[in-house]
Amino acid sequence: MNILVLNCGSSSIKYQLLNLENGNDGEIMAKGLVERIGLENGIINHNAEEKIKKTMPIPDHAKGINAIFELLVDSENGAISSLDEIDGVGHRVAHGGSFFNDSTLLDDEAIEKIAQCAELAPLHNPANLKGILTVKEKMPAVPQVAVFDTAFHQTLPSKAFMYALPYEMYTDLKIRKYGFHGTSHKFVAEKACDILGWNIKDKKIVTCHLGNGASVCAINKGQSVETSMGFTPNEGLIMGTRTGNLDLGALLYIAEKKHLNIGQANTLINKESGMQGISGISSDMRDLEDAAAEGNERAQLALDMFSHRVQKFVGSYIAILNGVDLIVFTGGIGENDANTRKKILENFEYIGLYVDVEKNNIRGKDAIISTDDSKVLAMTITTNEELVIAKDTKRLIKQS
């Protein structure tokens, strides 16, 4: 079964075409990235038999997806001879609101519900919808599936997802914690348990998805019971350009003193803050570690703040779980940054978790990084959200 996975962002489209035969984890037939949608010159990086880079006008997502289709069936560097060889299309959708607690086959009703969630994720859901509708127009007979970033967190209890606002803010405006990165948190927890030969239903796990966007999740018996991102992805950890948790009174004070409107305040907390704002250098951990090594104090401060915030969430989630069996690191930072992992874990010796410096000195591998005598395990697990989307698409198509 050939599954096309589309991840439509506000100005980009990531894609993979995977072949899922019975029992395997998928063969990537082609993959690529469409960038600068809506700007004068769009860019497509496509990788199948060979790597191709094209610069062309890509005014909208429909043009971008049609360009992807053309590359997939290209006579010289295509992965398939005809679009008829695509058996299903899976879409990453940012926000499913309270409508979806699992991935879903897309019909008119599901598409309408995704549209209703657009105001909860104005940068992402409209782009996701454009991808869905373009495929529906181009290949109306091909089944489509939506896989939601928020779905895994629909098991949060009300004491975890509610905010201390007047209750009608929840009933009227649906203001609550939704959480994100759910696909990744679920995937790495299950993958880690498979590697260890554990039954996830018996385990307490804290997963740390650390990248330019970052979140922590407490997983009890395979279900999300708490997570750091909230109504929007800005809540929780310090991120590349996002503040994470912030005293709302401070934001109001800044807005008043700096004469910021709502749009400018939103830009401040989402695009100008975080590691970039603290350091004044970069949102990239690699740049900050290089600068800190050369004595830049603000870069070091940003690194220290990041690790401290992750430590704080992990510690609180251990309390919520009443103990922990496993702490997992994933994402660009979590999988590749040994120094950050060590700094986060160094205060958890009280629960019997000790970092093995040699084991921890790895990048992009599935591995145990705690010592052999640790009572609590720590692991790095590589995430693969495209594979999750493809597998869910295959599962739902077979069930239909």
Automatic annotation (TrEMBL):
Its EC number is 2.7.2.1. It is an enzyme of class 2 (transferase). The active site is at D149 (proton donor/acceptor). It is found in: Cytoplasm. ATP binds at K14, H209, L210, G211, N212, G213, D284, M285, R286, G332, I333, G334, E335, N336. Pathway: Metabolic intermediate biosynthesis; acetyl-CoA biosynthesis; acetyl-CoA from acetate: step 1/2. Substrate binds at R92. Belongs to the acetokinase family. This is Acetate kinase. It comes from Balneicella halophila.
